[in-house]
Amino acid sequence: MEWQTPWRFGIVYVLLSVLVASLHTSSGLSSELASGVSCNNLFQGSWVYDESYPLYDSASCPFVDPEFDCQRYGRPDKMYLKFKWNPNGCELPRFDGRDFLERWRGKKMMFVGDSISFNQWQSLACMLHAAVPNSNITYKKGTPSTITFEEYGVSVMFYRSTYLVDIVSESTGRVLKLDSIQSGSAWLGFDMLIFNTWHWWTHTGKSQPWDYVQDGAKIYKDMDRLVAFNKGLSTWANWVDSNINSTATKVFFQGISPTHYQGADWGEPKATNCYEQKQPLNGSSYPGGPVPAQSVVNSVLSAMSKPVYLLDITLLSQLRKDAHPSKYSGDHPGMDCSHWCLSGLPDTWNQILYAALI
User: Fold this and answer.
1) What are the coiled-coil residue ranges (predicted)?
2) Which of 135, 314, 328, 348 has a CA that sits 20 to 30 A from residue 261's CA?
3) Distances (CA, A) of 145 to 3, 141, 347
């Protein structure tokens, strides 16, 4: 195998991605996708106060991981729980867990991705549990982890795959293989798949779970992360196009979930993280602008032959600088401005998922 030096053309790539994404965008769930909702774009809007929120009490949900259980681990404020997403020009339907279970009676769905996918999976499980708290529910941890609502025959699963492509231990070390998906057989046979990846692509140093990255026959010590992300996501896209029967399986891609570690991004230069942020940003725009990885997602999805519905959660999540665990996490040392409290923001992601299905 040929060894190469790191790639250095990420900036050029990003500019090209933006151009491609502007020509071919998959970033809106329109009325064509959400037949029960008349809305041009569920992802453009603002956050409004609503006393009826949250949709469930985290203390009553048996599935919430300590990492996301902010109230249990000492978060003193509750204002962040009281906001709902208000899309421009339409009303996002309130989540109806019983209706969701009836519509998906006898079916299986799987979240595939990293800890942000895990965050959304637990949110959906809590939302469904709140609708049928006395129903017979089984929870099996493993690979995948499975929560089954026995009365309805509905299974909601989570399969951890941080990059979607493979990391393989070889004699030289741990190799991130950008053109390989060996675990894909575990994702077949489902009625709905919700994929995500990005969070780990930016990790470097000791927090990075691989030593080398391989593209075809070439191995690199490192690679521009947007370039690598594009290659890995393209491998996943080819896998979906080659293996998924769209008449039997609905496929979603969870968009890029943002972080809040730089206050300048939201207009508070003195803020060094999300700690003590208590309310969303006002309005419908984010001062820091889009995340570069969004352009990669848009360009890859636009080139696919099979339909993949993008949950374009980035902007609405960027506005929620207040919704992270920060230091109120039971299983995440330090300051967590990457994941999200439950109950909280991921519940809105699942409300939009529900709107896309009704």
Assistant:
1) none
2) 348
3) 38, 4, 19
Report the pLDDT value the prediction gives residue 160, as an integer from 0 to 100: 97
CA–CA gap between residue 88 and residue 284 (Å, rounded): 9
Q: For residue 38, is pLDDT > 90? A: no
State the greatest distance between any 2 C-alpha atoms of the chain, in Å, as a whole number.
Answer: 61
Backbone angles phi, psi at 6, to 5 degrees: -60, 150
Which amino acid appears at position 324 of this protein? H
336 is catalytic: yes
- What are the tokens at 104? 């998906």
- What's this model's pTM, rounded to 2 decimal places? 0.90
The residues, any chain, with a CB within 8 Å of residue 37's CB and separated by 6 or more, are 31, 90, 92, 93, 355, 358
3-state secondary structure 19-72: HHHHHCCCCCCCCCCCCCCCCCCCCCEEEEECCCCCCCCHHHCCCCCCCCCCCC
Contacts of 36 (CB under 8 A, 6+ apart): 93, 355, 358
Contact 192, 109 (CB under 8 A): yes
What does the pLDDT read at residue 37? 59
Confirm whether 161 is a catalytic residue.
Answer: no
What is the H or E stretch that residue 225 is in? helix 225-243
Catalytic residue among 145, 299, 339, 343: 339
Looking at this protein, which amino acid is placed at residue 202?
A: T
Out of 115, 295, 299, 338, the active site residue is 115
Beta strand 309-311 with 212-215 is unpaired
331 is catalytic: no
What pLDDT digit, counting tens, does each position of 305-354 carry?
999 999 999 999 999 999 999 999 987 789 999 999 999 999 999 999 99
List residues bridging with 111 in a β-sheet: 158, 194
Distance between CA atoms of 288 and 82, rounded to whole angstroms?
Answer: 24
Average pLDDT value for residue range 48-61? 97
pLDDT at 3: 44
- Dihedral Cα 87, 91, 92, 97, nearest 10 deg: 170
HSE (CB half, 13 Å, CA atoms) of 6?
9
Residues in the chain: 358
Q: Which of 69, 336, 338, 343 is catalytic?
A: 336
